[in-house]
């Protein structure tokens, strides 16, 4: 299934290949994308693929009158993931997700990510089951196709901010295409932004080989709405010779923390 270009999934080139109760499979192009803060190749869009594929596996477990919202995302990546993707940049990364355990108020799904059948990452998503919101919008309708030309920053509508000090900051500009059906920034989009700033924070001022993302854990605290104060920011709590840890936040229009994340990176 291809998605309209005026939807978050369509803009980033997500394609769903299978959607069933026991298994959901989707893909996303990642090759050639770079972190706007560092200029280095990035695997940040994997977070969007995980949010979609595992989220879909959880969504299929909802009862009549229910909807799902992501509460937590965890991604574990092999250290040479960018090299694997760079070897065949035109090939997408594929995620295969399955539900895990019995569902309660929260559902859990697991997925494995591969590139040309090479294992790349493993991930989980927890989703809350909620009553269908009264203000749920209709799914966008429009043409489908490959993602529009431009950089990752262009697709995300983010700008590098002059933060000063050791904080890495990306400003999130308004763009309705990036919103989900609840009218807030899509969880996969925000997870990309958090990975980008966290990765930049652990590599700030670093000489020699960069630290590469090993794990990313995202907690969705409240809805992320865009306004003048909307941004992703991160600071490194540790940046050593072989490992680094960064704490990241998505700040909403009201100036409050909407999403938190922790990234661990390795040389």
Structure description:
The structure is a single chain. By secondary structure, this protein is α+β, with helices and mostly antiparallel strands. It has a single domain (8-132, 152-266), classed as Acyl-CoA thioesterase, double hotdog domain (Porin, Beta Barrel). 17% of the residues lie in helices and 37% in strands. The chain is built from five helices and twelve strands. The protein has helices at residues 8-11, 46-59, 81-86, 152-156, 187-202; strands spanning 15-19, 24-28, 66-77, 93-100, 106-115, 118-131, 158-160, 168-172, 212-220, 231-239, 243-251, 257-266. A twelve-stranded antiparallel β-sheet has the order 1-2-4-5-6-3-9-12-11-10-8-7. Helix 2 (46-59) runs antiparallel to helix 5 (187-202). The termini are far apart. Pfam families: 4HBT.
What is the structure about, briefly put?
This protein is α+β, with helices and mostly antiparallel strands and 267 residues long. The protein has helices at residues 8-11, 46-59, 81-86, 152-156, 187-202; strands at residues 15-19, 24-28, 66-77, 93-100, 106-115, 118-131, 158-160, 168-172, 212-220, 231-239, 243-251, 257-266.
Determine the strand fraction and express it as a percent band: 35-45%
Overall 3D shape: globular
The count of DSSP E runs of length 2 or more, i.e. the number of strands, is 12
Structural class: alpha+beta
CATH class: Mainly Beta
Identify the strand order in the major beta sheet: 1-2-4-5-6-3-9-12-11-10-8-7
Mean pLDDT: 96
Number of domains: 1
SSE order, one letter for each helix or strand: HEEHEHEEEHEEHEEEE
The total count of helices amounts to 5
* CATH homology superfamily: Acyl-CoA thioesterase, double hotdog domain
């Amino acid at each position: 299934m291809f998605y309209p270009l005026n939807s978050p999934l369509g803009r980033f080139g997500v394609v769903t290949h299978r959607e069933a109760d026991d298994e959901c499979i989707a893909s996303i192009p990642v090759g050639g994308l770079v972190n706007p803060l560092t200029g280095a190749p990035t695997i940040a869009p994997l977070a969007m693929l995980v949010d979609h594929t595992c989220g879909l596996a959880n969504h299929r477990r909802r009862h009549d009158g229910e909807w799902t919202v992501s509460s937590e995302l965890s991604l574990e990546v092999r250290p040479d993931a960018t090299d694997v993707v760079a070897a065949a940049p035109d090939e997408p990364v594929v995620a295969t997700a399955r539900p895990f355990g019995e569902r309660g108020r929260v559902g859990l799904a697991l997925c494995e990510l591969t590139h040309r059948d090479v294992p790349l990452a493993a991930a989980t998503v927890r989703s809350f089951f909620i009553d269908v919101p009264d203000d749920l919008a209709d799914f966008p309708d429009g043409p489908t196709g490959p993602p529009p030309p431009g950089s990752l920053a262009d697709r995300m509508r983010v700008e590098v901010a002059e933060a000063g000090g050791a904080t890495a900051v990306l400003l999130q500009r308004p763009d309705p295409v990036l919103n989900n059906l609840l009218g807030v920034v899509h969880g996969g989009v925000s997870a990309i932004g958090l990975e980008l700033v966290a990765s930049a924070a652990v590599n700030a001022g670093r000489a020699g080989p960069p630290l590469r993302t090993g794990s990313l854990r995202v907690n969705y605290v409240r809805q992320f709405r865009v306004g003048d104060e909307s941004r992703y920011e991160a600071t490194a709590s540790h940046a050593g010779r072989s490992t680094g840890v960064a704490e990241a936040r998505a700040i909403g229009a009201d100036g409050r923390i909407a999403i938190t994340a922790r990234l661990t990176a390795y040389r």
